[in-house]
């Protein structure tokens, strides 16, 4: 099967007494045993549920993986990945990373006796130099949040494998449709299902995917022990959204490309960060590594936080909100949202200026989006 067919058909045969084309929601906490002589395949929803199993099958198939575990949030998924490290281990985290992962590195893992440090994921030599004898994990993402840099996933994964370090890759911004990290050598892929996988801004969820049975089992055991499981209804909703991932991503990407090209020519936009632009420093790498350039972009407007706020608060179609990946376009202000846990000095060191806006381009009519940006940018005078 090809991608779009997998999303609709994997694990989704007609089910139940009435052969429902859409599988029913198993909204139950527990399942009946017929006898004590045989343990049923599903007995308690914290540990397993048919809706979870179907969603896990589909995500694994789309990522080219064998083992998927879905979680109650993307942060639960990255926390599960972090559980592979033990006290005394060392974890490397890319300097250009989602703020929630940064917060784990700064606030949580050190309390567990785990050493943490950073590396520049744009340079595989930086990773090589940062690895220590006790390094257990290297965590990175691409395109990066929020300035949309693209890193050489295959090169970083190869360095990790050669040095005996597990590679953990956040594929949220690209989605399985645009990028296949496992095929590039990554050990464990992490997703926030809240974003493109669900795609409708009505569910919070996460996932890990791997081809390593030991890692797959570790993720399942972590889920079972910590209770970080999504509800059956959340799994059902996520699967409903996932079925249209291919067609949504095609529209997302075409809208983003057109908007980025328009904004690059706009006199009130100082800089556009979008891998699909030939001017982007990682454009050629993105062209080789991704199937398209994604729907996330960032722009620098004016010179100050006040000017960025004036634009962010001036949209009529685009909405000012956290998160991304839904069918509606959203504008976010990283210093107060995704990267609020960093100091201004730390943000500046990572290339996140106070006049940066992050845009999640939705699937509205592109002319309406361009017109909305025109009138919002006009507020700069």
Name the features.
381 residues, alpha/beta, Aspartate Aminotransferase, domain 2, Aspartate Aminotransferase, domain 1, 2 domains, seven-stranded mixed sheet, globular
Detailed description of the structure:
The chain is α/β, with parallel strands linked by helices. It folds into two domains: 3-242, Type I PLP-dependent aspartate aminotransferase-like (Major domain) (Aspartate Aminotransferase, domain 2), CATH 3.40.640; 245-380, Aspartate Aminotransferase, domain 1 (Alpha-Beta Complex), CATH 3.90.1150.10. The protein contains 14 helices and twelve strands. The protein has helices at residues 3-9, 50-63, 74-82, 99-108, 124-130, 153-163, 175-178, 213-226, 232-242, 245-264, 283-289, 305-312, 344-349, 366-377; strands at 67-71, 90-94, 115-119, 135-141, 166-170, 188-192, 206-210, 269-273, 296-301, 319-320, 330-332, 356-360. It has a seven-stranded mixed sheet, sandwiched between helices. The chain has a five-stranded mixed sheet with strand order 8-9-12-11-10. Helix 1 (3-9) packs antiparallel against helix 2 and helix 10 (245-264) runs parallel beside helix 14. The mean pLDDT is 97.
